[in-house]
TrEMBL record:
Record GO cellular component, one term: plasma membrane
UniProt keyword list: Disulfide bond, Glycoprotein, Membrane, Receptor, Repeat, Signal, Transmembrane, Transmembrane helix
UniProt membrane topology term: Single-pass type I membrane protein
Transmembrane segments: 564-586
Residue span(s) of domain Fibronectin type-III: 464-560
Cell location: Membrane
Keyword Membrane belongs to the record: yes
InterPro entries (alphabetical): FN3_dom (IPR003961), FN3_sf (IPR036116), Hematopoietin_rcpt_Gp130_CS (IPR003529), Ig-like_fold (IPR013783), Type1_Cytokine_Rcpt_Type2 (IPR052672)
Name of the protein in question: Interleukin 12 receptor, beta 2a
Family, similarity comment: Belongs to the type I cytokine receptor family. Type 2 subfamily.
């Protein structure tokens, strides 16, 4: 095959369409001398320099896909080329099927040619007796041919046809094929006008037709279709349906069992059956609950399983719960879905539970609420896969005893599930990996239930994802109390077995660890060193290993001085309290007087200044103080003369000012008093104050103290005048007589 171009002409030894996997020769004939280039799918496969020959060839082997082959001269972008399409020759036509739609004068036929030829293939149907040479069509990509042709005469009862299929690689023919027209008549697609249903059956109302056979198919949503045939022409009844179930309905029809073809299925019609009262009792179980402090009865949590669709027979609107106590007292409770549990507190009672829909109530399930006895037998389990385990236990009672096995995720009793078995083995399914469960096995005996519990059930687990966070509750010099938070359930990745408390000495770098069994979450650390600082953290364990640590808690052991400070503060508070109490007691006059008498006995003894070593030392070589005092005469009743005071400077440590005042009195009774008014003052030269100023300040002080009445009286034995019996100050004069201490009033 030659294809000419401006530069060259190309040729394929087997044409453009070749057998898949075959080989052939591709040639190019150039119109001029040039350097020749040959390409396959854009890739150069041959290079020939200028020579005398204008033709160049290349062998193409085992072609399996579409290829483009081209040639051009070097330096000239314009090519010449050919597209090669590999394929197969057609097979013999077969599987002829023809259809004549009712009330139509055309016949449509379809047949196959075996495998797809890949390349273009022509189909042809020829009808015997028809002047038309043939009815042509193109085979599709799936290897089917189809053709439609008219029926020339209405009285024809059969047809004879030949089939022809051809392409560039070959041609195939089959026939003759005889077709009886009555066998290829196809009724039109029927229509379902209406559907009416009760709880158990539905009636289909369809359009009028003359067919004698109808086929019906129906199914609930996502369920396999059921099919049956019926000879009714207008109304079709379907029975044995389920209540409160949505169904899809379709029909098709045929002339009769032996003649004609089935029509297409009608468009689906959907209808829901009506509800019925549930006819199955609920599956009920119970667990004991902690009772409220104010309740004197026992408390239980009642659980029940939701009825499946076929048992519920409608939408459950509520659950009726009745509590009947031994005294005949009853109490009714209504629970609304999705709730499937109820807390009940009663004593020696039974409970009945039933489900209610729009059509009625299910049979009542009655269960006696009794506390189960504990069974000492050990339960064991082993994982079967990531979602199930096998549970084993020893026999509780005689053979044939029914057991209830219940389980739920730790911390989520709302997710409880249970099964009833009569063997000592149960397969628990529907478990979630990395989830921890707990449960129990209860033997339902006539003498009372007996229960054995099990914890730490898991189908598959790994190390915890998160560690607990510790906190310090208290600390002392040598010990501290630490507690830590719960790990969230989703972070545990299984059943926790224990905790490890790590303590690191910041000074030495030593790390100590302490093991604490789950579920305890506190520990007392002893042996701490005062003033030493530590870091503390906690990790959690499952059977799969240790998880990461939680937050790090730094702390320091307290000092001993802190303890002493606490004692000092406590002692100071006690002393202050005692002083306040004493101050209040001193407000009583009798106590006040006796206290003053006691204080007088504690006054210090004042020595005679004249006998002091300092006075004697400086008396000879220094000036002396001279006092001039008239001889006292008891008969004279006149004012005493002024006393002349001479001040002679002394060293600061022995400088004194000594003054005497003398008063006379006419009565003997007042003489002693006058004498006691003689007063001797010792004033340091560094702080001398005039007598008039001292008296003024003293009087002001007394007035201010009298006005502040909260404090005890300011009278003090220290402020009483000193009694002098003569002009000379001696130790005998200032001596205090305590003989009358007990007689003070």
């Amino acid at each position: 095959m030659l294809l000419a171009g401006a530069v060259c002409t190309v040729r394929s030894s087997k044409g453009e369409e070749v057998l898949l996997g075959s080989s052939f020769t591709f040639s190019c004939i150039f119109n001029k001398q040039c350097t020749k280039l040959i390409f396959r799918n854009g890739t150069q496969i041959k290079y020939i320099k200028k020579n005398i020959s204008k033709e160049v060839s290349v062998n193409i082997e085992n072609i399996t896909e579409f290829n483009t082959l081209s040639c051009r001269c070097e330096g000239n972008p314009e090519p010449c080329g050919i597209d090669i399409k590999p394929g197969y020759p057609p097979d013999i036509p077969q599987n002829l099927t023809c259809v004549q739609n009712m009330n139509s004068h055309n016949v449509s036929c379809i047949w196959t040619t075996g495998r797809s030829t890949i390349i273009d293939t022509t189909c042809q149907l020829r009808v015997h007796g028809d002047l038309h040479l043939g009815y042509r069509s193109i085979m599709n990509s799936t290897g089917f041919c189809h053709s439609t042709f008219p029926i020339k005469s209405s009285v024809m009862s059969q047809l004879v046809v030949w089939l022809n299929v051809s392409n560039t690689l070959g041609i195939k023919t089959s026939g003759p094929h005889t077709i009886n027209l009555i066998n290829i008549v196809k009724p039109s697609m029927p229509e379902i006008l209406n559907v009416s249903c009760s709880s158990r059956w539905c009636s289909l109302h369809i359009d009028n037709h003359s067919m004698n056979l109808v086929e019906i198919q129906y199914s609930a949503v996502n369920v396999i279709w059921d099919t049956f045939q019926n000879n009714d022409k207008s109304r079709l009844n379907i029975s044995s349906l389920h209540p409160d179930t949505m169904y899809n309905f379709q029909i098709r029809r045929k002339i009769n069992h032996t003649v004609g073809l089935w029509s297409d299925w009608s468009q689906p019609k959907r209808k829901k059956t009506k509800e019925e009262a549930p006819d199955k009792a609920l599956d009920v179980w119970y667990l004991q609950e902690l009772k409220p402090p104010e309740s004197k009865s026992k408390c239980f949590r009642i659980f029940w399983k939701e009825l499946n669709i076929s048992d519920a027979k409608g939408k459950i609107q509520r659950y009726n719960i009745s509590v009947l106590e031994q005294k005949g007292k009853s109490n009714s409770i209504i629970a609304v879905p999705p709730s499937r549990n109820q807390s009940i507190c009663c004593y020696n009672c039974s409970v009945s539970v039933s489900a209610v829909n729009s059509e009625g109530q299910s049979p009542v399930k009655i269960i006696q609420l009794r506390l189960p006895g504990l069974h000492t037998g050990l339960l064991s389990h082993k994982p079967l896969n990531n979602h199930s385990i096998a549970l084993f236990w020893p026999k509780f009672d005689i053979a044939g005893t029914e057991y209830v096995v219940h389980w739920y995720p730790v911390g989520n009793i709302e997710g409880i599930q249970w099964i009833r078995v009569v063997d000592t083995t149960a397969h628990i399914t529907g478990l979630q990996p990395q989830e921890c469960y707990q449960g129990a096995v209860t033997a339902l005996r006539s003498s009372g239930p007996k229960m054995a519990t099990i914890k730490g059930i898991s189908s598959w687990q790994s190390a915890p994802e998160q560690g607990p966070d510790p906190e310090l509750h208290w600390k002392k010099t040598e010990s501290s109390g630490v507690a830590w938070s719960e790990i969230p359930q989703k972070k545990r990745r299984g059943c926790l077995k224990k905790y490890t408390v790590y303590l690191m000495d910041n000074l030495k770098g030593d790390i100590h660890n302490f093991s604490v069994d789950h579920p305890k979450r506190q520990y007392v650390i002893s042996g701490l060193s005062p003033r030493q600082c530590y870091n503390l953290w906690v990790t959690a364990w499952t059977d799969a290993g240790e998880g990461p640590r939680g937050s790090v808690l730094p702390f320091c052991a307290p000092l001993d001085s802190e303890k002493m400070l606490s004692l000092v503060i406590l002692a100071g508070g006690a002393v202050l309290l005692a002083c306040l109490i004493l101050l209040c007691i001193c407000q009583f006059s009798s106590v006040h007087r006796r206290f003053l008498c006691c204080c007088q006995c504690l006054l210090p003894i004042i020595p005679d200044p004249a006998n002091s070593k300092c006075a004697k030392t400086y008396a000879d070589d220094q000036s002396e103080i001279k006092f001039y005092l008239d001889q006292w005469d008891s008969s004279v009743n006149e004012e005493p003369d002024n006393v002349e005071v001479e001040e002679v400077p002394y060293p600061s440590i022995c400088t004194y000012i000594k003054s005497f005042s003398q008063e006379s009195s006419s009565s003997d009774a007042t003489q002693f008093t006058r004498i006691t008014d003689i007063m001797e003052d010792y004033i340091s030269t560094h702080g001398a104050i005039s007598g008039g100023e001292e008296e003024d300040e003293y009087e002001k002080g007394e007035r201010s103290l009298d006005e502040f009445e909260f404090f005890p009286s300011t009278h003090s034995p220290f402020l009483e005048p000193l009694v002098l019996t003569g002009g000379k100050l001696t130790l005998d004069v200032v001596k205090i007589d305590c003989s009358e201490f007990l007689d003070c009033t």
